[in-house]
Please model this.
Amino acid sequence: MRTNHEIDYKIYGEEMQYVEVELDPNESAIAESGSFMMMDDGLQMQTIFGDGSQKQENNSIFGKLLGAGKRLLVGESLFMTAFTNISHGKKKVSFASPYPGKIIPLDLLQLGGKVICQKDAFLCAARGVSIGIDFQRRLGTGIFGGEGFIMEKLEGDGMAFVHAGGHVFEKTLDAGQTIKIDTGCLVALTQHVQYDIQFVGGIRNSIFGGEGLFFATLRGPGKVWIQTLPISRLASRILSYGTVNRKEEGSILGGFGNLLDGDGH
Model:
């Protein structure tokens, strides 16, 4: 049986998705600030310290401060927002994705009670789900991981929702099965998947490969969620496009080439 609040949901959209959560009377959902989109009348918004889970509530004041402080390491706020249905009928609240990609629903009850995900992936969850951090077991991972392999962990038996960029697919690894992926493409994994960061050998690969110096090695059993467009990669392309003077790019096409790109100035 679930101890976390049990919520129903529906995901809308293709590239810019949002998730609509349906709450029965006295049920709550929690979310990071900035993900809220809209809600029905009859829902109460309340800022809470931490995630409001039973695990946190059982901690001392020092434990709560320590847990909240750890969340700062993964770029999250000390506070979250709880949306509670204080009316008599069913009410809905919606949360939007921050950039193009997909929203992944995670039923923690069916996934062993714990999922580890990348920084900033968490979108919202049923109240009772604990949102903490997961330290890498090896020092080298944290230092050389590139994408910052201090990751978030979602614990409990309720529904949680994370967001990732581009197309997202789920891969099930058998016991001992290993895959290697770009560190930024790793979205989430179940607790029994072993993960580590390895150096990509070879000067040609390191300097000219374009894929960075390190990749993530994942070994089953368990499930892994992988994204095709990490936000860091998208931001890098946008930054390089916007900061390079392209007026004289292509001596043959010149300004006409810029016009074809949508830059007619």
